[in-house]
């Protein structure tokens, strides 16, 4: 606060009390009723300026109405030797006195012992005060305590089951080395949750998607390292040298895979909206923690173990020793078959999207209100839908959500109208329409959302305005295109051939289109919810991240082998794919184990989301070998392709 501004003490009479109360204030800012003499809407402009002595000042201009009121107010302040406070949100930013008689014309200059930054702040306050900013809720979600606790319990239990299976799998596949990888993986999860806790982040479905992808990438990094160490051991190197060379050779693939995924996450964070930003934040944190734990923690544990006397460390068990070694599958010679198969799947999916049932868009994309309602006995959703369409008008949709006694009601009724009155009206109409399906004695209050310990009634409600629905779609589209463009450029720079970028991007489009096609074809057949909502966006983003990660690892090995041995008409490309096949299948299986565990045990709210990721991981694994690499190969010079024919 400028030191040369005069503060005053005056008597403010409150109408609610009979006695006069003395209050210390910065300046006269109110009349007897405690309301401002002039509100900010009369300020037409305000800016940081300099006075005649070149000192920082604030210039302010008012409209015609404000100029008249300002002339009277400044005259009163001058005659009473008081100041005039500038207040926003009950905070006094400055309280200058009036140096001359009443100020006419609406143009004023506020001077004092200001800094330039202070004048900018005051000008911003004055400009903000003239803007009418009404608050409107464009998106809200309320989850009742019953459904909320169920989701927490089922989600936590499914995550524990998935992690236990992954930890056991790593030990079963890599022996003691797998146990070291498990320690690194557990530390990675601990670090992720620690960072999220420090940021006061809320774990949502997109956040879960980011963590699942992070688990896959963390396992992938350790698998890459262990497979490269096994290759060095097969060459006859000692344990110490094999470990050192294995980590060194795997580093390039690990960094390339994580950088491409990290660039995607950054673009998604910049261009994405709420759920996309949440996914990107979790993924960025996970990338950093997985890199740290895989490269440093796993290395530290292995070096410590092999440094001891008479300690043997094999990177396999009796069941996995020699698995996926000395493979010589000719992937490229059969590439036309994969083109035809993928072409058929993509075309069928596109036909379903444009001419068939299409995607079931949730309220996140079309706007509206959605209610999850549970009954004591199974109900007929078609019968309820017919009744509710008479109440709310056409467009109301009802479907079974999980068990036969639970439904999800979606309606566009009064989606543009805000206020508690509308929410109460809709819940009252739902109660009246569904009362015959409820047990006798069920009150309107117990049916409404928010009742503690309830087992029937409204368990969850979601409201999304049409504006935010459009924003979600547009931001998701821009985020995905932007991430693909950045990845294309990075792969182009890193691999120095545009054909590699083309193969990666084609594979991503291939994967996304197949997932969309599956949801279009089977959306109304599957016994679980397959609506396209914000969680589905996170699932698609996870598919993109996984597909890119897998493709870049294969490409990195191709580049390494080609630089050493040359193209040889595609022979060495096949060799590179064969050498990474064990890693590809191992990573895919561990990721699928996590997804399947959450899909089976994670509750109804997670099933559609997990199903999209399961399809995406399967298709992404296939495309990295049978789409991305063949497209890259066919896009190269004719000299290379001719020698294969």
Number of helices: 18
Stated plainly, the CATH topology of the largest domain is called: Multidrug efflux transporter AcrB transmembrane fold
What's the total number of strands? 12
> What is the gyration radius calculated from CA atoms?
32 Å
Low-confidence sequence ranges: 1-33, 130-135
In the CATH hierarchy, the architecture of the largest domain is Up-down Bundle
Provide a compact summary of the structure:
With 645 residues, this protein is an alpha+beta fold. The chain contains 18 helices and twelve strands.
Task: Give an overview in words.
The chain has 645 residues and is an alpha+beta fold. It folds into three domains: 9-129, Gyrase A, domain 2 (2-Layer Sandwich); 140-358 and 469-642, Multidrug efflux transporter AcrB transmembrane domain (Multidrug efflux transporter AcrB transmembrane fold, Up-down Bundle); 368-464, Alpha-Beta Plaits (2-Layer Sandwich). It has helices at 64-80, 116-129, 145-174, 176-198, 205-234, 239-271, 274-306, 335-355, 363-366, 381-392, 420-434, 444-447, 466-495, 498-522, 534-565, 571-601, 604-635, 638-642, and strands at residues 9-12, 21-24, 43-50, 56-62, 86-88, 91-94, 107-110, 139-143, 368-374, 397-400, 406-411, 457-464. A five-stranded antiparallel sheet has the order 8-12-9-11-10. A hairpin with a 5-residue loop joins β10 (397-400) and β11 (406-411).
């Amino acid at each position: 606060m400028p030191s040369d501004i005069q503060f005053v003490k005056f008597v403010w009479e409150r109408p609610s009390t009979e006695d006069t109360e003395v209050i210390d204030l910065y300046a006269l800012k109110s009349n007897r009723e405690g309301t401002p003499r002039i509100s900010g809407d009369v300020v037409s402009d305000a800016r940081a300026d300099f006075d005649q002595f070149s000192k920082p000042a604030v210039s302010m201009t008012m409209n015609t109405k404000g100029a008249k009121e300002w002339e009277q107010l400044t005259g009163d302040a001058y005659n009473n030797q008081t100041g005039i406070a500038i207040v926003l949100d009950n905070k006094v930013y400055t309280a200058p006195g009036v140096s001359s008689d009443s100020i006419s014309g609406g143009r004023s200059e506020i001077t004092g012992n200001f800094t330039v930054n202070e004048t900018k702040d005051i000008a911003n306050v004055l400009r903000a005060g003239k803007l009418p900013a009404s608050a409107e809720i464009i998106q809200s979600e309320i989850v009742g305590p019953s459904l909320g606790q169920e989701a927490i319990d089922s989600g936590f239990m499914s995550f524990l089951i998935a992690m236990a299976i992954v930890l056991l799998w790593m030990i079963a596949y890599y022996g003691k080395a797998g146990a070291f990888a498990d320690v690194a993986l557990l530390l990675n999860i601990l670090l992720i949750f620690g960072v999220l806790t420090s940021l006061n982040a809320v774990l949502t479905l997109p956040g879960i998607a980011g963590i699942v992808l992070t688990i896959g990438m963390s396992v992938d990094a350790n698998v890459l390292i262990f497979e490269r160490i096994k290759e060095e051991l097969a060459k006859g190197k000692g344990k110490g040298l094999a470990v050192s060379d294995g980590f060194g050779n795997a580093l390039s693939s690990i960094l390339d895979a994580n950088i491409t995924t990290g660039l995607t996450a950054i673009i998604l964070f910049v261009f994405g909206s709420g759920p996309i930003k949440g996914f990107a934040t979790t993924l960025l944190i996970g990338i950093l923690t997985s890199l740290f734990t895989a490269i440093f923690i796993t290395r530290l544990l292995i070096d410590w173990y092999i440094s001891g006397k008479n300690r043997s460390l094999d990177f396999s068990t009796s069941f996995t020793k020699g698995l996926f070694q000395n493979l010589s599958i000719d992937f490229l010679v059969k590439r036309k078959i994969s083109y035809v198969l993928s072409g058929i799947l993509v075309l069928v999916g596109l036909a379903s999207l444009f001419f068939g049932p299409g995607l079931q868009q949730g309220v996140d994309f079309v706007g509206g209100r959605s209610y999850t309602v549970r009954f004591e006995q199974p109900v007929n959703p078609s019968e309820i839908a017919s009744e509710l369409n008479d109440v709310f008008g056409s467009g109301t949709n009802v479907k079974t959500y999980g068990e036969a006694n639970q439904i999800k009601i979606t309606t566009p009724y009064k989606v543009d109208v805000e206020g508690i009155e509308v929410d109460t009206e809709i819940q009252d109409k739902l109660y009246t329409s569904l009362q015959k399906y409820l047990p006798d004695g069920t009150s309107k209050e117990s049916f409404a959302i928010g009742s503690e310990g309830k087992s029937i009634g409204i368990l969850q409600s979601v409201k999304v305005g049409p504006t935010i629905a459009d924003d979600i779609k547009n931001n998701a589209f821009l985020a995905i295109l932007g991430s693909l463009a950045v990845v294309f450029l990075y792969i182009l720079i890193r691999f120095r051939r545009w054909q590699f970028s083309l193969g990666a991007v084609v594979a991503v489009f291939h994967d996304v289109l197949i997932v969309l096609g599956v949801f279009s074809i089977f959306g109304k057949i599957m016994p679980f919810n397959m609506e396209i909502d914000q969680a589905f966006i996170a699932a698609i983003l996870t598919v993109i991240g996984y597909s890119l990660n897998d493709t870049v690892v294969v490409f990195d090995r191709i580049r390494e082998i080609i630089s050493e041995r040359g193209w040889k008409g595609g022979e060495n490309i096949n060799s590179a794919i064969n050498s990474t096949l064990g890693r590809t299948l191992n990573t895919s299986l561990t990721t699928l184990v996590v997804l399947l565990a959450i899909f089976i045990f994670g509750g109804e709210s997670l099933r559609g989301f997990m199903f999209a990721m399961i399809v995406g991981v399967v298709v992404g694994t296939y495309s990295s070998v049978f789409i991305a690499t063949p497209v890259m190969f066919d896009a190269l010079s004719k000299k290379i392709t001719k020698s294969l024919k």
